[in-house]
Structure formats: structure tokens, C-alpha cells
Amino acid sequence: MTSTMPDAVPHPLVVRTVPLDDLPRTSGDSADPADLLGLLPADAPLAWVRRGDGIVGWGEALRVDVAGRDRFADAERAWSELLAHAIVRDEVGLPGTGPVAFASFAFDEGSAAGGVLVVPRVVVGRRGARSWLTTIDTGATLRATPTLAELATPQPEPVSPGSVTYTDGAVRSEDWLSVVERGVEAIRAGEVDKVVLARDVYATTSEPLDVRWPLRRLAARYPSCWTFSVDGLIGATPELLVRSEKGLVTSRVLAGTIRRTGDDDADLARAATLAHSSKDLEEHEYAVSSVAEALAPFCTSTNVPDVPFVLHLPNVLHLASDVTGVLAANPSSLALAAALHPTAAVCGTPTTAAAQLINRIEGMERDRYAGPVGWLGADGDGEWGIALRSAHVDQQDPRRVRLFAGCGIVAASEPAAELAESEAKLVPMRDALGAD
User: Fold this and answer.
1) Most buried in the list 141, 183, 191, 223, measured by CB within 10 Å?
2) Angstrom distance (rounded) from CA 42 to CA 48
3) What is the phi/psi pair of residue 315, to 5°?
4) SS3 of residue 297 by DSSP
5) What's the CA gap between 63 and 356, in Å, rounded?
6) Is the peptide bond before 428 cis (omega within 30 degrees of 0)?
7) 415-433 and 173-188 are packed helices; what angle lies between their axes, rounded to 10 degrees?
8) Are 34 and 148 in contact (CB under 8 A)?
């Protein structure tokens, strides 16, 4: 693990959260806490937003880079050590106030992508009618709180990345059919019950990508998803790995997908077909069971729905279940995310065998795709999604973007149908990169 630890900085973290309604504003202030994504600068924005609520951040007070099997535990240990030295004044007391870190982690423990935990210098949050401003600094004393307008200075509007060309990633689309075939063969041979196989596509834009461009478009078109941005990883995930808040835990599980047609009547018929599809129900059951089993040791009680509902998104329909529980002790949301990852929805069943099969046949490095992404607060509560419907912007070349999509494979899967499903799952990021 490499990190910037408290004893490596001259002073501890100094954190202050104030309600924005109490801050002075002038008629010339353009900063609006009701538009969280609109506050972000182009340089390394941090975001976790759904239906206009959530938190955004910018600047970097501290950063912790981790790697390997213990990446989650190392990140949590570093966060705890930072908090032990922090001076905190939180005048709001809501989830997402006080010290906050944004983070994302690699799917595989052997990945060079590892994980990163970023503590921003400025955080703006919104929850219903309430909004707040958090400043995080390294200093000996609390300073006067600046206004939002001083911290969120007017930024140039993001411009279109121009024309976009797409090329195959690690595995050509026609060759990916064979990857799926090998997955089905392994299932029928009894090696696994289910495996999730993914593919990547490279986008090249004619102009450097300002990530605020796709973030705003994703949030507008997929408001029921969690729009995120952490260290070059951007997306809008429909899948909540875990939310921990005041002793309650929630996980939204998605597995089983069908592409939408754009015709309302036809899509209603497709939703009914999906809800009764034995292949998709089997895939969904594996995913729900893996989450319920992983949460059980942490909870005094859990609620697992008997029947999934159909989640309607602009591009696809998903079978979805919300698993909830009451926590027995006080594990952090990051510890819960570590226990849940990887779920059957992004890996397979049994987990270890599915992960080994993925490494053997998938043919690509997932990096932080399908890994946990989200935020962590000082009390351990937080929200973590699975980095799906996502892309990674090349830090060295902002014209190069890597898109990802994956599909759950069971014995009844057909390679051509799975390729079509993966194309449907690439639509959100393709559209987000496109011009108006």
C-alpha cells in the first residue's frame, strides 16, 4: 500500500460542515447547491449523485492508494488513522456531512488498478430540501468558512468531445461469442452454476473529454441510477452494492436483462416476458442469494423479497430485488462492501470457481470495472455501487476512453443474445459521449 498518512502532513485534517442556507450569498452568486454536478470543475471532479441528491467534491486534501487482497482493509485502516487525528466541526449531522472520502476499487485482487481513496478539499451535499458545504484542510485551527461562491467559482461550460470513433477492446466482438460459448460449456460441465463475462470497447474522441459532459448527460437520462466520478472512473450504475445508514443496510441486486424496443406496449410485453423467464429468474436467484448470504453474518435480521420487480431504464429492463437488513454490530459500509464483493451479479456462482473461470477465458483486465465505487463517512456509513455502465478515461490521453459491459451467463444462455445484451449495456456511455 502507498499512501499519504497523517504523520506525513504538517497538521491533522481540519473539517467543517455548515448548512448552505446559513451562508451569506449575494445576488451575483452563480453557485447553486440544487445543481450539484453544475458546481464541479473540469479537473478531477468527484461525484455520487442520484435524482439530484448526493455529494460532489473537488480538490485533493489527501489520497490513499492501495492494492492486492487487503486493499479494502488497508483503505479502511488508513481512513481510521486519518480520522483519529482530525479536528471536526459538523453543524449539519446528515449522511455525507463531516469528513468524507470518495473511493473505487479494482474488481480483482491481482489487478494493478488496486484502489484509491480520495479525501477532497471541498464537498457539497444535498439531501431533500437540505444542502451543506464541507471544507477539508490540513491546518492547526479552524478558519473562517468561505462562501460557496468563493469555492465554486464560475467554470466554463463543458463542450462536446466532438466526433467519437469506436474500436474493439481486448477481445473482438465476433470472438467474444466464443468466450460465451466456453462459459456455457463450463456451466454444463458442472464447473460453475453461473459466470459473468465482460468485454471492453475503446472510444476515441476528436477533442479532449471534459468528464462533466458525460456526467451531466448520464444524470439527466438515468436519474434512477447513481452517477459517479472517482479518479477517472465515470458512469451511472443501476446497482447499489450496499448502503449503510444508522444501523440499516440495503443492497439493490440486478440480474436478468432484456433490451428495450422504444415502443411502450412492446416494452410492457417484454417486461412480462422477463418476469417469467426461467433463464433470467435463475440468474437473478443466484445473485440475490449471494448478497443475502454475505450480509447474514452482519445482521440480526434480513428481508429478502420472494419475487423480483422489473426495473425500467431507458435502454434495458432488469430484474431487481432490494435486500435489506438490521446490522448486529457496527461494521463500516466499506467493510460490508468488501464482504459482498464480488457478488454473483458481477462474478458468478460459486464465487471462487467463477472468478477463476473469468481469469481463464474472459481475455481482458477489468481494472476497476465491476468493482465497488462510492463514498465513506466518518461514522462508517456510506454508499457503494458496483461500477457498471461505466468507462475509464485515460489519464495520459483524455481523448481515449475505455467502455465496459458484462452479461450473466447460465446454461441456457445463447452467445448471440448475450452479445446483443452487452451492446445494450454500452448504450448509456455511448450516448453520454455523443454530441447533442
Assistant:
1) 183
2) 16
3) -105, -30
4) helix
5) 31
6) no
7) 130
8) no
Sequence-separated (6 or more) residues with CB below 8 Å from residue 77? none
Contact 185, 143 (CB under 8 A): no
Q: Which of 125, 133, 124, 118 is nearest to 61 (CA)?
A: 118
Provide the 3-class DSSP secondary structure of residue 143: coil
Contact present, 337 and 72 (Cβ < 8 Å): yes
Q: Is 174 a catalytic residue?
A: no
Among 152, 226, 233, residue whose Cα is nearest residue 382? 226
pLDDT surpasses 70 at 26 = no
pLDDT digits (tens, 9 = 90+) for 230-270: 999 999 999 999 999 999 999 999 988 888 888 888 989 99
Which candidate, 227, 197, 136, places its Cα nearest to that of 355? 197
Q: Which amino acid is at 224?
A: S
Q: Which of 109, 150, 239, 365 is catalytic?
A: 239
Q: Say which amino acid occupies 49.
A: V
Known active-site residue 418: no
Instruction: Give residue for cell 445494450.
Output: 424
Q: Dig out the grid coordinates for 6 from the structure.
A: 497523517
As a whole number of angstroms, the distance between CA 227 and CA 236 comes to 4
pLDDT of residue 143: 67
Cα distance between residue 163 and residue 349, in whole Å: 40
C-alpha cell at 351: 464465487
Q: What is the dihedral of CA 179, 185, 188, 192, to 10 degrees?
A: -50
pTM reported for the whole predicted model:
0.92
Residue from 334, 365, 364 nearest 109 by CA: 365
Q: What is the pLDDT of residues 380-430, one digit of tens each?
A: 999 999 999 999 999 999 999 999 999 999 999 999 999 999 999 999 999
